[in-house]
Design a protein that fits this description.
The chain is mainly α and 268 residues long. Helix content is 75%, strand content 0%. Keywords: Membrane, Transmembrane, Transmembrane helix.
């Protein structure tokens, strides 16, 4: 059972940063869609030719490989921006869910009210999960609306929805890493070191794997290897398995975080 007042308070506090990150994603989405040319991708290729090839590879951009709108977005928007921007949001929000409250003493006030540890931390988890759902729902609606306005009928909506579903599952898994770390530690610095450091490390390894073919295997040591927009759009055989794996990571780590928080010593 969740605490309604705590849920509203937590979600309201997250809403400010949620709006900021939603605006950043909306800006990038609008720019990317407006750059699409259904007749020729020469302009994009010329612009990308101005960048070092290592940078293009590190950002997971598949230049010129896709001529469809959904393929274009899969490469230029979902290949890097949708990995990095929500990741930063989740690092901040997941730390705020537990560790920051314990560190500041606010958790003592929450637990002094007639609320069990389980109820408090489950409410925090629910608010974090809802924030991610709303963020990706906004991106999805924004993408469809702008695409229909600029290029009516060009967007493969089914494939686009699947890509966004995969992106949501990936970000829920990232948030679960941060949430479990936030539940494990009583200090924000330690929570951020693990809950923020691990997703950032995954991102760095993903970027390094794109720089050199010799490092390609490194990509598969990261969580982000389970989210491949091009594979989702193509309807690859492993898409369902990858999505199931991301969902499993989220369920396991959120559950583990709640169990750890219930049993650990708190400096109250």
């Amino acid at each position: 059972m969740l605490s309604g007042p705590l849920f509203r308070k937590t979600f309201k506090s997250q809403l400010r940063i949620l709006v900021i990150f939603a605006a950043i994603l909306a800006m990038y989405m609008g720019v990317e869609i407006s750059m699409f040319n259904p007749d020729s991708m020469d302009g994009i290729k010329e612009m990308m030719d101005m960048l070092p090839q290592q940078m293009i590879n590190a950002m997971n951009l598949d230049v010129g490989a896709e001529t469809s709108l959904v393929g274009f977005l899969g490469s230029y928007f979902y290949g890097f921006i949708v990995i990095m921007v929500p990741m930063i949001f989740n690092i901040i929000a997941s730390n705020n869910a537990a560790a920051k409250l314990v560190d500041s003493g606010a958790m003592a006030c929450l637990l002094s009210a007639p609320n069990s540890r389980t109820r408090v931390i489950a409410t925090q988890a629910a608010a974090l999960i809802l924030s991610n759902i709303l963020l990706m729902a906004f991106v999805t609606v924004m993408g469809i609306a702008v695409s229909q306005a600029l290029f009516p009928g060009d967007l493969d909506i089914r494939a686009f929805l699947l890509v966004n579903a995969g992106a949501l599952l990936m970000q829920l898994a990232v948030s679960a890493i941060g949430f479990s770390a936030s539940c494990l530690f009583n200090e924000s610095r330690l929570s951020l070191a693990l809950g923020g450091g691990l997703p950032v490390l995954f991102l760095v390894l993903m970027m390094l794997s794109g720089v050199s073919e010799d490092l390609d295997v490194v990509r598969y040591t990261t969580l982000y290897s389970l989210f491949d927009p091009a594979e989702i759009i193509a309807g690859g055989d492993t898409v369902g398995l990858c999505m199931a794996a991301l969902a499993a990571v989220s369920v396991v780590l959120y559950t583990l975080g709640i169990l750890v928080f219930r049993r650990k010593d708190l400096p109250l």
